Amino acid sequence: MKYFFAPMEGITGYVYRNAHHRFFRQVDQYFTPFIVPNQNRRLTSREMNDICPEHNEGVPVVPQIMSCKADEFIWAAEKARSFGYREVNLNLGCPSATVVTRKRGSGFLAFPQELDIFLGQVCEALGKLDMELSVKTRTGKEKPQEFPRLLEIFNKYPLKQLVIHPRLQTDFYENKPDLEAFAMAVSESRNPVCYNGDLFSVEDICRIREHFPSVECLMMGRGLLANPALAEGKVPDMARLKGFHDALLSGYRQAIPGDRNVLFKMKEVWIYLGSGFTNFEKYGKKIKKSQKLAEYEQAVERLFHEQQIRKEPFFHGYRKNSS
Fold first, then answer.
1. What's the pLDDT score for residue 50?
2. Which among 165, 114, 175 has a CA at the least distance from the CA of 140?
């Protein structure tokens, strides 16, 4: 079984990936937060820093690109190729309204004919670059009936991996994944299929593996943020988790100017990481209110010394979708 780390905007950049890969080695590929190529043919400094080779040494990384324009996507793929990457991923999954209104992410799924043409042009260009394409998709924008047509389109092209989050764009992260739609993909896809969605615990992983024994790849996002050792099928010991935290904090302090900005990044991480601790709420309040790194570090030290790690996480999305 292969395990992929889903891209999480604002969190799983190169600093996070390096720290995670140092302490938890079971993840086979990390997908970057999406790159959005523009008409000026430039990457932002954040995008450049995130995919440049010197920031990803020894880490198995796949750049993810979000676009509905083939020429822009191909330009970004060429840029990735110049850095040594041999695979890029197309984001057809992001449900954000600001993305969807621009016909990007899962918004592109509402235009199957245009998507078909786009994939034809992209696959032809990537073939000349000796690159592979993987796709991360939802099952449609508004209706489950959209998926058979989308799958028919995906089947026309040689994809390294079809990663399916079996929800609609309009679901966002509500409701439960549509396992019937995923089962259809497993049965009818001509490309290798990877499952993504609500993998929060070892039991969740086992359940999907039992349902779909032929599927050889799982992608996890929120579950891995809550339990960085989830791909290993266990919870981490306290010392290893503390080492990961300290490496992450050190990485952000080197990469980001100013304590306030470092604290902002670490507080984002604790939205999920905190759900793996017992009695996190009172410690979480102190972490959230911290204005200086010294205050933050004191609150975190107390948490690690006074609490224990849960067997499985307990965050809002987990409770709701698993009920």
1. 97
2. 165
CA atoms within 13 A on the CB side of 34: 21
Q: What is the pLDDT of residues 88-135, one digit of tens each?
A: 999 999 999 999 999 999 999 999 999 999 999 999 999 999 999 999
Tokens representing 41 are: 């043919």
Question: What type of residue is 283?
Answer: Y
The amino acid at 133: L
For the purposes of burial, counting CB atoms within 10 Å of the CB of 59, is it exposed (0-12), middle (13-18) or buried (19 or more)? Answer: middle
Question: From CA 130, how far away is CA 260, in angstroms rounded?
Answer: 43
Task: Please give the angle made by the CA atoms of 279, 283 and 289, to the nearest 5 degrees.
Answer: 150
Do the strands 64-65 and 217-220 form a parallel or antiparallel pair, or are they unpaired?
A: unpaired
For residues 21-34, b (16+ Cβ closer than 10 Å) or e, as one string?
bebbebbebbbbbb
Strands (E), 54-205: 61-62, 64-65, 87-92, 132-140, 161-168, 193-196
Report the C-alpha gap between 162 and 190 in whole angstroms: 9
Strand ranges (E), 32-158: 61-62, 64-65, 87-92, 132-140
Instruction: Name, in order, each residue with C-beta under 8 angstroms of 103's C-beta and a sequence gap of 6 or more.
Output: 68, 110, 111
Asked if residue 9 has pLDDT above 80, the reply is yes
Q: Which two tokens stand for residue 227?
A: 């339990």
Q: What is the 3-state secondary structure (H, E, C) of 291-314?
A: CCHHHHHHHHHHHHHHCCECCCCC
- DSSP 8-state symbol, 43: -
pTM of the model: 0.95
How do residues 167-224 score in pLDDT, each as one tens digit?
999 999 999 999 999 999 999 999 999 999 999 999 999 999 999 999 999 999 999 9
